Each structure stands twice: as structure tokens, then as C-alpha cells.
């Protein structure tokens, strides 16, 4: 069974002074804390055992917000990353939690939404090899960039190249087999002193054990690392929810639709949230039939 890693550490320096007191993953994106969105992505993939990694300072806040996850039918454990030494370090921190299991790791400031997303995530979760995603962007220099040959086979993945070899960026969502922690331990610090996740992924590529799943135009990927990006994400989520009358990345709704909690548990979760309107939305789910695809 694949386990999940939600990386919510870092200093959020690109958002200073907003994040000088509280980490960005606890800031709101429209009507929910930012951390709800990547958490829901893991839940939609069918992952119910999740390790959240954060700074020691933020640990009590995350525990107060998320508890142990049992209210949503999942299990959340916590670990700390004292200093931001790279994404690959999270795989080393999580080694004891994983205990030989494959994993999916998602960055706490990455939001995904779109048609057939849940189906894509659950299908990817069933694949035994490592899988990363490709997403067409206008500014690939800011991301890990995937290079393809004429047969659409992956040739290379390069972190923030000055001259990108394609416009396909790699979002912060990675599915690994049970060798991820081992590969992370083989990585040496980069010039910026971090253990780069690209160096882990390239080991899978070198061993012919990497797949790339292209996310099409029907899927939105939002990175909320800057004030402008946060504002755009809030505007996007607000527009979708107001237009459709449906919430994006609502953990209570996902848990209920997937059978992780029952009607009584949903009512209990809704009660303290009635004044905000969020609770009323949860109660409205009791009379709703969920389609196969629920993003």
C-alpha cells in the first residue's frame, strides 16, 4: 500500500513578510487552509496513511488544525525538518514511516484541480514504477524541465535550466516505489546546498523505471509560492466554487464520497462550521449522489 508524504516545511522567504510568523501552508487559499489542497490530492489518489513534514515551530499548529486525520477516515503522522535542506531530504526523514512501502510525495504549496484528476491519480497509484507528471508552462526556467525524444520518451529532467529543452515542467507531485529513501541517501548536496529531488528522479530514469504522465489542458496546476501566485490561486478557486456551487479540495466531502466516513460523522464535522456556510455545504452532501469522478 502506497503511503503519502506532504512536505510543508521551508521558510517561505518569497512570501515575506506574510510568512515571517506563520508558514504559507497554513495561510488561506480562498475558503480553506492551503494545506487542505495537497492533502486532498493524496486522499483522491486513495492514500490514507500520510506523513506531514514541517518545521518544529509550525508542528503544534498543524497538529491543532489536522489532528490525527481520523475525523476524515485517514491517519496523519508528523515529522519535522529543522532546516530546509532540499525535497529529497523528506524521503530520508520519512524512511521509518514508510517502512519499505512505496510513496507519493506532494509539496504543500501545490494545488491540482481538473477533469478526470481523481481517475488519473488513482490509476497512477496502481503503477508499481516511479511516476512524475508533465505540465506545459510558459516559463519552464522556473521548474524542473522534462526533455522528450521524438517518440515522447524521457531523455532528461533538469532543475531550473537557463535554456529549457521543452515547455513541460514537473509539478510537485511524485509517485515512487519502495526504493525512494535509498535513492535519496545517494544524493549529494547541490551548489545551493540542497538534496535535489531531480537527482532522485534521475536515478529512476537511469534504471529505466520512470514514467511521465502528461497532465492535459483540462487540469489546473497552481504553485502558490509568491504573493501573485497566491492571489491567482484564490481567485481561481473562488471562481470555480461560485460558478459550480461545489467546493474544491474539501476533505470532508472527499472522505464522505469515498466511503471513509459515514453520514453521522459528516454531520458531526459540519456542526461547528455552520456559521461560515462551510458546514451548510457539508450537510447538503447528505442528499447528494456522487458521480464516479469527484474533483
From TrEMBL:
The keyword Isomerase does not apply. GO terms for molecular function: glucose-1-phosphate thymidylyltransferase activity; metal ion binding. SUPFAM superfamilies: Nucleotide-diphospho-sugar transferases. It comes from the Bacteria. It catalyses: dTTP + alpha-D-glucose 1-phosphate + H(+) = dTDP-alpha-D-glucose + diphosphate. Pfam families: NTP_transferase. Pathway: Bacterial outer membrane biogenesis; LPS O-antigen biosynthesis; Carbohydrate biosynthesis; dTDP-L-rhamnose biosynthesis. It is an enzyme of class 2 (transferase). The keyword Nucleotidyltransferase applies. Its cofactor is Mg(2+). Gene3D superfamilies: Spore Coat Polysaccharide Biosynthesis Protein SpsA, Chain A (3.90.550.10). Residues 3-238 form the Nucleotidyl transferase domain. Keywords: Magnesium, Metal-binding, Nucleotidyltransferase, Transferase. Its EC number is 2.7.7.24. Catalyzes the formation of dTDP-glucose, from dTTP and glucose 1-phosphate, as well as its pyrophosphorolysis. Belongs to the glucose-1-phosphate thymidylyltransferase family. This is Glucose-1-phosphate thymidylyltransferase. It comes from Shewanella psychromarinicola. The gene is rfbA.
